[in-house]
Each structure stands twice: as C-alpha cells, then as structure tokens.
Amino acid sequence: MNQLCRQTMVAAALAVLGSVSSSAWADSYTIDFKTFFNTATADNPFDTKTLNFSVATLTISDLAGGNGVQLALKQHSHTFASVANAGNFVDALWIKGPVGAAPGASSSVPMPIAVTYNATPIIKDVGYAYNWDIDFGGGNFAEGQSAVLTLTGAGLTAANLTAIAQSTPIMLSLGNVGGSYGLASLGNTVNFVGGAPMLVTAVPEPATYALMGLGLVGLVWARRRHVA
Prior knowledge:
6-stranded antiparallel sheet, 3 helices, globular, 228 residues
C-alpha cells in the first residue's frame, strides 16, 4: 500500500511539473540601436568611435498574465555627434505590431509620452511601415535617461513583437544630431534601425513558481517516505 502511495505521489508531482508549459514563462528580449556611420578619414583611419556604437537599448518583456508587454528604453551616454555639443535626444520609437492600448508610463524623462497606434501604417526609412508611434517630444529624453511604458492588447507579446521585428526592425529616431550626420532640412534627426532581438531570459510567472513548488514538495515527500 505504501509503495502504491509513493508511486501515486511521484506521478502526481511529475504531472504538476509537466503542466508548467513554456507559455507560463515570461520572455524578455533586448534590441540594440547602433550607429551605422564611420568617421574614419584618410588622415585618421582609426577614428571609428561612431561606427557600430550603441546609442540606446530597448528591452521588451512580457507582462504577468500575458496581456501585454513592458518597453524599457535607455539612451546611453555616448560621443555621437550633436548640435553645439548639447547632446542627443530620443525623439521617437517606431514599432510594427497589432492594435492595443498604452495604459500608463513611468519615466526618468520629465515630459508626457504620446503613444499612438495608427491603423494606416506610417512609412519610414527604407520603406519600413510602422503602426506604433511612441513620441518622446524632442529635446527632453537626454543621454543617460530612460523611459518605461506598457502596451496591452491581444497579440502584444515579447515573442510576437520581436518576431515581427525580424522583417520590420524597430526604429529609433535620435534628435539634435550634428556634425556631418545631422541635416537641418531633416530636423537634425537620424533614424537608427534596431539590431536583431536577443532573448535575455525566460522568467517563470508567479503561478508557475507555485506549480513548480507543489511538484517539488511532492517529490521530496515521496523520497522521504521511500528512505523511511
């Protein structure tokens, strides 16, 4: 009878652990926005500080419960050219994705964030079309600052948005660009195409931890009964 009880407990514990599917894990991806300019000249071929240099990083994470995503954008302190050495500002973030809502935002940037979903996509550089226009209001989002906001809606998951980004990369508009890159006719703004999304980690949601705990408790109990 005890043997049957142990087998039953082990089977139940394994069933609980097995029920923790991959969908219960929250994905998190990072996308790097790097310069595509090379300032090297014939006089100084080693001046490549602005080539392949990261100006900003975006982290896209699933919200608990799978009802949307969190976007965390960080502009790094860097040496990219700016107007009158005043530093660069993030003007906007452009994303292609399904319709949703932006219920709120928290930020170190002291300004309102205007988030707009466009049913008719907006065409940007190289013909890329975007639905989401996240406008930070030029002149506010300075180097070293960050912003965090959420998008909610069906189909808005980290995996889905990054899968779409494989063909329509997320784009960052950097303002107050100077030197030979910033053109006054374009508002001294340069668009940076995001690199390939990198999976950071898959983090279990709270309910997943509970299921795993139940399964492990069952296995430990069965093991102790077996030793006894």
